[in-house]
Design goal:
With 168 residues, the chain is an alpha/beta fold. The protein is built from seven helices and seven strands. Strands 4-3-5-6-7 form a five-stranded parallel sheet, sandwiched between helices. Helix 6 links the parallel strand 6 and strand 7. Helix 3 packs parallel to helix 4 and helix 4 packs parallel to helix 6.
């Protein structure tokens, strides 16, 4: 890499900084992602962050948003998303309950549900993973982690072992 500085565009969104390099080599994706992501999240700022990443980096990925667990379950069944990103703390039910209710879709359709939580490893995460959740990510959402996980989920790759529970 040369000694010159790369220009970096920074957008501020209520205290959240999104950085995107203007270096075209870094903007090249291996393949354009296609699919539908259902994001079950009650915090508008987190939804705006994911919307921004998808619009800027992955325009072929359609985003569906649910602000409650009940809406998330309903949309997962009616819209058949390829990937569900699920907050564990929702106003009407826990993320664990959402995973329980989507257990048939996880088992029969191979629905990939990734748990997003502000907690470190908890019993609810362990239970959700045992019910078939694909991965778990800890907040705050890391853009590189999000993009790598989105790629794994939409291309049928195996989960990242670092985002799974240790096997016995």
């Amino acid at each position: 890499m040369s000694g010159r500085l790369q220009r970096v565009a920074t957008a501020h969104l209520k205290g959240v900084r999104i950085m995107v390099s203007s270096d075209p080599r870094l903007d090249e994706a291996p393949a354009a992602l296609q699919g539908t992501l259902l994001y079950v999240e009650d915090e508008p700022l987190n939804v705006a962050l994911v919307e921004g990443i998808l619009a800027q980096r992955h325009p072929g990925v359609r985003l569906i948003h649910a602000g409650t667990g009940a809406d998330g379950v309903r949309l997962a069944r009616s819209e058949n998303p390829d990937f569900v990103l699920l907050d564990m703390h929702l106003p009407d039910m826990s993320g664990l309950e959402v995973v329980r209710q989507l257990n048939v879709e996880i088992a029969n359709r191979g629905l990939r549900v990734t748990i997003l939580t502000g907690d470190s490893l908890s019993m609810d995460i362990i239970k959700a993973m045992s019910l078939g959740a694909f991965e778990y990510w800890v907040k705050p959402l890391d853009v590189k982690l999000f993009e790598a996980g989105l790629r794994r989920a939409l291309t049928g790759r195996r989960p990242d072992p670092a985002r799974r529970l240790p096997q016995r």
